[in-house]
Amino acid sequence: MAEVAALVAKGLELGLERGWFGRVRRFFQKKRRILVLGAAGTGKTAFVRSLSGAALGASDLFRPTLVISQTRVTLEGLRFVVIDTPGHEIYQAVRRDAVVQGMRRRFDGIMNVVCYGYHEIETPREEVLRADHLRPRAKYLQNRRRVEVEQLLSWRELARPELTPWVMTLVNKADLWREESDAVMRYYESGEYHEGLADLPARVHHMTLPYCATIQTFFGGLTSGRFGDHDRAGLQAYFVKTLMDAAGKERGVRQ
């Protein structure tokens, strides 16, 4: 018995010394399921990769998400399963499947990625940018914002307290719309897009956050201007803090 007790004591000592208990606790820790929705070209995949630290190559800019994919990430000690969905209109059946699956099983949160119409999709450059190639055509942005609202209405039924506790509107590509940030945030917080969430149940919390997954040109013409890596890191840090609060994690307490 004494030998067994000694082995137990030694095992406990080694476990504490090498951090095994923390690893075991994290292994069995709950994985929070986050559903990511949004129109094609808003940067959903870039957003997911920014969470995992994976780089986004130039060849990925026009590569649409064709299937539902899952990415496991750990942020501030919390484990998440981020479920990315196709955004392109022609893959609406796949996206609908994700919505149906969501109605069968509760999500810990829903993120809708938008970007004020700055959708970089397979469209001829001259149809998107003005003649000076310095700004996108207003009509293009308006049409793509309309697509954002249409997609919002297609999954709004998921925003019920029995299916998810919160919905986050993540306004991506802040590097591109920085100069008009007041109008952009006003649109999502009180404009046409916000009206699509007007009947959101009181027990489903809604948040609107600016974000920048990666800094890049828009259709090879419009650049991000004075927005730099420091600004991007600041928005990402604020997002993580907000996500931790939404996940119910006590700040400063290691899980």
Care to describe what's here?
- The chain has 255 residues and is an alpha/beta fold.
- The chain has one domain (26-246): Rossmann fold (3-Layer(aba) Sandwich).
- Helix content is 42%, strand content 16%.
- It is built from ten helices and six strands.
- A hairpin with a 2-residue loop joins strand 2 (69-75) and strand 3 (78-84).
- It starts with a helix and ends in a 9-residue tail after the last helix.
- Mean pLDDT is 79; it is low at 250-255.
What is the element layout, followed by pairings?
Elements: H1 2-18, H2 20-28, E1 31-38, H3 44-52, E2 69-75, E3 78-84, H4 92-104, E4 109-114, H5 125-128, H6 138-155, E5 166-171, H7 174-177, H8 181-190, H9 192-195, E6 205-210, H10 229-246
Parallel strand pairs: 1-3, 1-4, 4-5, 5-6
Antiparallel strand pairs: 2-3
What is the H level of CATH, i.e. the homologous superfamily?
Answer: P-loop containing nucleotide triphosphate hydrolases
First-residue to last-residue Cα separation: 34 Å
Major β-sheet, in short?
A: 6 strands, mixed
How much strand?
15-25%
**Count of folded domains:** 1
Averaged pLDDT, please? Answer: 79
Number of distinct helices: 10
In CATH, the architecture is: 3-Layer(aba) Sandwich
Strand order across the largest sheet: 2-3-1-4-5-6
Q: Could you tell me the radius of gyration in angstroms? A: 21 Å
**Beta strand count:** 6
The H/E string reads: HHEHEEHEHHEHHHEH
Shape: globular
CATH topology: Rossmann fold
- The helix-and-strand class reads alpha/beta
Proportion of residues in helical segments: 40-55%
Unreliable stretches covering 5 or more consecutive residues: 250-255
